[in-house]
Amino acid sequence: MIDLNKIAVISGEYSVKYSELLKRVELYAKTTPRGKETKTVILSENRLGWVYSFFAVWLQEGIAVPVDATSTAGDIAYILRDCQPDAVWVSKEREAVLQEAIQEAGVETKVLIIDDYEFLPLAEEPTTSYAAIGDIPVYDFAELKKTSCCCGWYDKNVCKEDDVASVIYTSGTTGSPKGVMLSYANLMANIHAVSKNVPIFSPERRTLILLPLHHILPLLGTMVAPIYVGGGVAISPSLTGPDIMDTLCRGKVSIMVGVPRLWQTLYVGIKKKIDQSAAGRTLFALSKVAKSRTLSRLLFNSVRKKMGGHVDYCVCGGAALEREIGEGLRAIGLDVLEGYGMTETAPMISFTRPGDYIP
Q: Where are the beta strands (DSSP E) in 106-218?
């Protein structure tokens, strides 16, 4: 059972407990449209308010529509015309481009500013009487299916597994972006796969939020799943090396999710330092041949320490990872779990299991 005093989200100097997360979500929910057919767009850089606004939509039984914060007014206007949202949660930084997009799209929608609510003073206790975030640990997956409870954010008598939880826009390989409708059952199938069938996400492992949350892999894999299972998340303020390393250390992060470019950059930097000494090159060659996780972590313990000392899994998706990089990271004690999927499968189709490395 999740201790509500446990840290749910870390962002810079801020640490938000599960109890506060519930209160913050409830606060955002008070101004979020309610109802299963309502759609709310989220247009913001990764931040605490992104998390609050997303779960507030679910708390109100609505459909969350995350949009790329770097989109042009034209791109946003296309999505607004297509999904006709009832409201938009937007950061102050992106408000101007949103207003331009609204004008271009010719739609009417309620504009809600994330910054206005992010650090407001809170009441002592949440007033929500139904399931919501704090009650998630009451149910295991079998119980969730039996009661048709979707992720534990609703009253179990109200929610249905086939209800649409989120619409994720993806262009795939052709044409204009399409809104992929994902149900709670879609999302729960993925969460169950990586927490029950294959225990990657757990209450003991915190996950790094690094990639933009409008994509389904970071949305599910770096926010929804780790918060759901009780492991919590740490938000990196940017994709720069110093910010990533600081967040890894500050958050004691165990799971990193990235694309091949990230792992290539990380590996090249580490390997460059290893190659500066004959001893380093010898130990690396030995570790690569031995293929022993224990030996690799012993020989290159300093690498993990610089990353906070808690990283267990490096998850790679989006494209194929070069064999040299995967094998090299494994040789220095960083396990790479490579996955294949698509937005329509929320997102996983297949992935390598811990202990395996299959290029």
A: 110-113, 164-170, 178-183, 207-209
Angle subtended at Cα 55 by Cα 54 and Cα 61, rounded to the nearest 5 degrees: 105
Kindly list the distances between the CA atom of residue 38 and the CA atoms of 43, 68, 100, 194, 245, in Å, as whole numbers in the listed order.
16, 20, 23, 30, 39
Looking at residue 359, its pLDDT comes to 73
DSSP 338: E
Give the torsion sign (CA, 60, 65, 71, 75). negative
Q: Quick one: tokens of 66?
A: 């995350």
pLDDT of res. 355: 85
Provide φ and ψ at 120, rounded to 5°: -65, 145
- Nearest to residue 307, comparing CAs of 261, 245, 350? 245
Q: Which amino acid would we find at residue 112?
A: L
Q: pTM for this one?
A: 0.90
Is there a contact between 176 and 78 (Cβ–Cβ < 8 Å)? yes
Q: How far apart are CA 163 and CA 347, in angstroms?
A: 17
